[in-house]
């Protein structure tokens, strides 16, 4: 009885295992035994042929047919700026450098050769609203060549002023002559010339003759003035003994401006030429490479130094116009060196003879009945024995 129940239980377990195995095999049936699967046929998209670079094209080069090729792209990726015809690109010039495979657009080529104007690197250092102007300098006017690029300086203008006739624009005093009228047919021409001081002009009619008489006896006489001699009370006509003396004035006209460059700017290629080196020929088994030693300057040899004769300033446009006027009017310009941390603007008074005498309490010497001998008409710099160079033959 007990053995029969065990057999029945084992039979049930066997049925369950076999059924599960059959179900598992049915679910894992190979794809090869499955039925036919329908495959979707892809739909072809419309394409467009565009022009691309077949090789590297440098900027400014004229494009030839060998530099171009075409490629197919979907019509949805096509842009109106693309070229579709190679002949439309041949003969044009590349505005930029083109790499192989780049799509050519209308903005990349030009019918005329492009002009590459990179400009000066110095111009990029000038702030907006400012300009640069060059002014001639000497050792004395440039703080003994102590000015360098980037320094800040003041500019002093010194000029000579004279009085002129507003109508003639000639130096005062004017030249004059005494004129006396008379009757006759001749005119004495105002004193004439040096060769013919009494030149005449004869006419056929009765006219008034003007006789020109000079005051000092020469052809023309400078305009003078009448003064009374205090002791005798006799009037005298006084004329100047020499030409008008100009009057000197100095003033600081431009303050706290920056120096862009000292000296002449290097031209294109000069910097590269100075740093270029000549390499020796490559060595071979027959001919070894020759090594040329670089000569070292001797300790006592003086290296030639170029003395700058120009200083370029960064100024406002109005100051540039003023500096140009000063330069062409003959004024002397002097540069004073400033501390870079000093950005103050200081008011200065123009220096004249009257200002110097009053400001520094300089008295005008009294005319004495005695003086130095020999006569002294100009200041002479003292000469020291060490200043005299003795040349040994």
Describe this structure in words.
The protein has 393 residues and is an alpha+beta fold. Among the domains are: 47-110, Type Iii Antifreeze Protein Isoform Hplc 12, CATH 3.90.1210; 122-162 and 244-265 and 307-364, no CATH class; 175-228, no CATH class. The protein has 4 helices and 15 strands. A 5-stranded antiparallel β-sheet has the order 5-14-13-6-15, covered by helices on one side. A two-stranded antiparallel sheet has the order 1-2. A hairpin with a 6-residue loop joins strand 11 and strand 12 (235-238). It is elongated, with a radius of gyration of 50 Å.
Compile the SSE list and pairings.
Layout: H1 2-27, E1 47-53, E2 68-74, E3 93-94, E4 109-110, E5 131-136, E6 152-161, E7 175-176, E8 178-188, E9 200-213, E10 221-222, E11 225-228, E12 235-238, E13 247-262, H2 270-275, E14 310-315, H3 317-328, E15 332-337, H4 353-359
Antiparallel strand pairs: 1-2, 3-4, 5-14, 6-13, 6-15, 7-10, 8-9, 11-12, 13-14
Features:
393 residues; alpha+beta; Type Iii Antifreeze Protein Isoform Hplc 12; two-stranded antiparallel ribbon; 4 helices
């Amino acid at each position: 009885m007990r053995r029969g129940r065990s057999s029945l239980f084992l039979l049930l377990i066997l049925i369950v295992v076999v059924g599960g195995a059959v179900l598992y095999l049915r679910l894992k049936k190979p794809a090869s035994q499955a039925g036919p699967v329908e495959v979707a046929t892809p739909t072809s998209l419309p394409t467009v042929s565009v022009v691309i670079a077949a090789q590297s094209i440098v900027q400014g080069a004229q494009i030839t047919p060998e530099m171009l090729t075409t490629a197919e792209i979907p019509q949805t990726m096509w842009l109106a700026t693309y070229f579709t015809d190679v002949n439309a690109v041949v003969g044009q010039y590349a505005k930029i450098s083109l790499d192989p495979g780049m799509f050519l657009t209308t903005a990349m080529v030009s019918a005329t050769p492009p002009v590459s104007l990179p400009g000066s690197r110095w111009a990029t250092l000038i702030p907006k609203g400012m300009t640069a102007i060059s002014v001639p300098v000497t050792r004395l006017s440039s703080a003994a060549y102590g000015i360098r690029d980037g320094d800040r300086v003041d500019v002093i203008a010194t000029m000579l002023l004279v009085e002129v006739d507003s109508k003639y624009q000639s130096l005062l005093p004017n030249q004059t002559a005494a004129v006396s009228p008379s009757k006759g047919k001749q005119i004495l021409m105002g004193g004439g010339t040096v060769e013919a001081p009494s030149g005449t002009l004869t006419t056929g009619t009765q006219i008034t003759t003007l006789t020109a008489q000079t005051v000092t006896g020469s052809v023309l006489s400078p305009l003078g003035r009448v003064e009374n001699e205090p002791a005798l009370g006799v009037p005298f006509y006084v004329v100047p003994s020499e030409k008008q003396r100009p009057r000197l004035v100095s003033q600081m006209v431009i303050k706290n401006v920056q120096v862009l460059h000292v000296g002449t700017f290097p031209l294109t290629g000069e910097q590269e030429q100075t740093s270029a080196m000549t390499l020796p020929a490559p060595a071979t088994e027959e001919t070894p490479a020759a090594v040329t030693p670089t000569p070292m300057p001797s300790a006592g040899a003086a290296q030639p130094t170029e003395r700058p004769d120009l200083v370029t300033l960064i100024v406002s446009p109005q100051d540039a116009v003023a500096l140009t006027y000063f330069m062409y009017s003959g004024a002397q310009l002097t540069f004073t060196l400033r501390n870079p941390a000093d950005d103050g603007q200081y008011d200065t008074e123009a220096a004249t003879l009257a200002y110097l005498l009053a400001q520094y309490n300089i008295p005008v010497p009294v005319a004495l009945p005695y003086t130095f001998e020999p006569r002294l008409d100009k200041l002479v710099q003292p000469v020291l024995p060490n200043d005299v160079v003795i040349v040994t033959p």
